[in-house]
Every structure is written in C-alpha cells, then in structure tokens.
Amino acid sequence: MSKNNIKTSGFSLAKRKDIVGDDYYEIKQFNDLTIAVLCDGVGSAEAGALAAKKVTQHILTNFQNIPKAWSIEKAIKTFITSINSILYAQSMQDYERPELVTTVTVAVIKGNRLYGANVGDSRIYLYRNKEIAQLSHDHNEEGMDNVLTDAIGIDKDVEIFYFENNIQKDDRVLLCSDGLYSVMSENMITSHLENGAYNLVKKASSLMEENLPDDTSAVVLEINDTDEIQKMKDLKLNIPEKLKKGDEIDGYKLTLSLIQNDRTWVCEKNSKEYVIKFAPYEALENEDILDLYTKEVWNAKRLKAGFFPKSVVPKNRTSRYYIMKKLDGITLKQYLKKRTLSVDDAITLTKTLLAMSQYLLKFNLVHGDIKPENIIVINRDEKRIFKVIDFGSITEVFSITNKAGTASYLAPERFKESAINEKTEIYSIGVTLYEALTKEFPYGEIEPFQNPNFKNIKLPQKYNKNIPDWLENIILRSTCADDELRYSNYSLMKFELDNPNKVPVFFNKNTPLLERNPLKVYKFGFYFLLILNFILIMRSV
Questions:
Q1: Which of 400, 345, 392 is nearest to 31 (CA)?
Q2: Which domain holds residue 30?
Q3: Can you tell which superkingdom this protein's organism belongs to (predicted)?
Q4: Which of 91, 271, 319, 403 would suit a FRET pair with 439, their CA atoms being 20 to 30 Å apart?
C-alpha cells in the first residue's frame, strides 16, 4: 500500500520520573510496505532496553533487504527467530544468564493486508467501525499477568504468535506496551484512538496523575484509503492465452496486432477504433508480472494529462485489459527514418517531455523509458504535437530495483544500478532531443549488456548545422556523462529552453582551458612572454 494512504504516529513515556524508559519503537515505510515494531524491554533484566532497540533495528534492517521469493510470514518469523538466537547467545556470553530480554510486536501492511506477530505481552489491536479487537496473544502465566511465559532472548527457542487480517479504509492498527492497556480499558482506548499515539499515551499518563507505573508506548497506523492497485489485482479476471484477429471480448473486436507478442491490438466497438492492451498470459502464474501489469493499469487509469493518450478501465470487463484512445500518428522513431525534426519542433518535443516529467513527479513517479519509440508524432492544424506512451515503464522516483529503460537512453549511472531520478530522466530527454535533431546518439548506439564508453561526446552541430549554439549547450548539459554537471531538475532545463539568451556556454571538466576561456589563456600568454622578455633583457645588460 502506498505510504500516502497510511498516516503513522508513535509516542513513548518513561515510568514515574525516569528520563529514559525500556520501551523502543520505530516505523518505516518503503516500496509498498509499512512496518511498525514496538518492543518493551523487560525491566527486571539488566539489558532490557538494549534488547528492545536491537530487536527493533534488526527486524527493520532485514525487511529492507527481504528476498523476493519470501512471503511476509516467512520474513517475520525468520527475523524474530534470528534475533532471538543472537540475543540469547550474547546474554550467555556476557552475563551467563538471559539479560538481553524484551517483548516484541510487529505489524506489516502490504496492499490491503495486515501481517502481524508478537512474543510476550505487548499487544496489537485492530480498530474498525468504533469497535476494537485484540489480534495478538499475551504470553503470560495464567492468572499471573506480570509473569511472562515467553519473550525474545529468554531462551534459545522462541514461541511466535502470528496472524493476518484484511484492512479497510478508516481502520486503525494499534501497537502498545502493557504500560498502556494496564491503565486504560479497551473502551477508553477506543474513545481516544482516533487522536493518535501521542494523545493515547498522554491520556494514560493523566490517569496516573503524570506518574506512570510502567514505561508506556503506542504506535498507531491509520488507514486513510485502501490500496487501489491491490483491489485491481484481486479481481477475478480471465487472461486469454492466445489472441487473433476477429476475436471479440466485451464487445471489442480485434482488428490489428500492434506488437509482436500479440498483447496489444487495434480494436473496434460501436464503429470506433481503440487500442486494447492485455496482461501477459504469464501473469496467471507469476505474481511479479501481475504486479507490474496491475501498476500499469492503475497508472493508465489515474494519469490524466494531455501528453498521454486517454485511457479507461471498463467497469464490467471480464478479462485483464485496458483501453486507450487510438492516436492518428506514427512513432518518433518511424518519423526519424525519413527526416529529422526542425529546431522548433524539437524544442516543442523537449518542453512536452519536461512537462510530462514534472506532472509525473507530483505522483512521485518517473516515466523510466523516454525514447523515440515511446513518442507519437501527430500532425494537427499544420502543427506537430507529441504524445508519450508506455504506461508500463512508469515507476517510483528513486527506485533502485526497477530495470525500466533502454540502453542507448540510460544515464551512465544507471549502468551502475543508481536510482532513477530527475537527473537520469533528463539524460534520457537529452538523448532523445539529440537523436531527434541528428538521427544519431551522443555516445553511439549502446546494445543491451554492453559496457558503454561515455568519454567522448559527438557535438550535435557536426550532424546538423541548423542547431543554434544555445540549444547545443542545452543538449550537451542534459547528456553530460558527469551527473554533477547535468541539469539537477526539470525546471532548470525548461528555464533555459524558455530563455535562450540566458543559456551559458557548457564545458565538460576535461574541456581544454583554451576552449573554455580563450581570453584568459591569451592574457596569461601575453604576461608570460612579457616577463620572459624582461628576464632576457636583464641578463643581456
């Protein structure tokens, strides 16, 4: 689930007049996961507070590097088991008895699903429709609430209570130490939960006249909206294995295959033409492929702007597909086989790509595969306009796991598994602009799996003398292999496109000084020769 759909809060107070307590919690949100861990270091142990911190950080650190093949359940249980073994062994080594001891509660939200586990008596509650339910299990001696039967670090083996639940809009997930529920009833927790973790803990403290008998901590995860991508993914829809001309699905008749894999077609319905794109057949068995396609559909549905083709997802569809408006044009790659773009059209293209990129950034997205094949050239009212296609490549900004992109348009740092960001997208825009004006690539065409050389850029004016100096400087800056010299953001590149008279001359770091500042070189030469002549005159006297 997107972190924009979940509001998080956490707060902790130490018991009585203590400055620091034994509780510890952290909340992390990355990729499509939200993870909260809360631990209550056992006060009777010498290193309970240290154990609480170690457990929390161990679980969160490992979740950032979770193997793709692992389920959330396997990850939670594996990470808890491993840190239990580590703390127990360390206790035996340092104290010869269990002293690194703590309870733990873990809550993970992915999609519209809550995954949770606990060891000890810290709790997890789910609040829904003004009712609260405890999801965790207290590991206490029967009739002796203050005696734990299990905790992290107390034994070489650990008993983990694990559970799962669906979550809905307006749900709240509460993680808390026993310091909270021992002074607040479930009814009282329910009445104050909507105000977040801080107000819960402060209310508990006020009930005890600001003299809490135990460390008290709470974490609240508030579900502001459900995950639309997950809802789309959970739909029971057919994926046709083979498609052929004449097939009819939900009234859309297939007329022309557009891509070799036969998953994208021109189709007709009610005498109008559309483009229909189906999910890969492999998505039936491969969850990663299904995830990627579902994100593509979600982006096609929600990204409404003039630089994209209009797209819809029919409500009553029986198969996994979405519909796009058929554009009356050709790809820029096809266009460049016959001619280059004029300077004016190239500027229009670049401004379109920058506007598209700035629009996506509002959603924390980047296109990921800007290139002439993904740009449609349309002639309208004796003007050329440009549309950007391929919703499938769109990904989260700063993603390091996404492999979107085409080799010749990838920034050099992308070959070193750098994150996708504004600078890498600007490089792709720059290469596209270069190709649109020259039919060439700044560093030559790059094949997949090739180890490219980005040392010597070919000046675009050598291929097209119509390119003005100011535009060449923009091209050189945007395609610079050194990302420190490249435009840092879309706005700066757009400003220079809009203000040609303010575009500075661009030089690479290895550009000779004579080219960068000939006047300075000539001045230095003049004074050097003047001093040399003076020395020679003095020697001859």
A1: 400
A2: 3-226
A3: Bacteria
A4: 403
Shared domain check, 296 and 357:
no
Beta strands in 285-338 (DSSP E): 311-312, 321-325, 330-331
In a domain, 421, yes or no: yes
Q: Which residues pair with 437 in a beta bridge?
A: none
pLDDT tens column, 337-364:
999 999 999 999 999 999 999 999 998 8
Phi, psi of 364 (to 5 degrees): 60, 40
Residue-wise pLDDT tens digits, 250-308 = 999 999 999 888 999 999 999 999 999 999 999 999 988 998 999 999 999 999 999 99
Q: Is 541 exposed, middle or buried (0-12, 13-18, 19+ CB in 10 A)?
A: exposed
| Exposure string over 58-75, b if 16+ CB within 10 A, otherwise e | bbbeebeebeeeeebeeb
116 three-class SS? strand
Q: For the chain, how many residues are written?
A: 541
Largest CA distance in the chain: 112
| Residue 532 covered by a domain | no
- Stated pTM of the model: 0.68
Instruction: State how far the Cα of 391 lies from the Cα of 307, in Å rounded to an integer.
Output: 12
Torsion of CA 284, 285, 288, 291, to 10 degrees: 20
Cα Rg of the chain, angstroms: 31
Q: Are 188 and 245 in contact (CB under 8 A)?
A: no
Residues 6+ positions from 380 with CB-CB distance below 8 Å: none
Is 312 in a helix, a strand, or coil?
strand
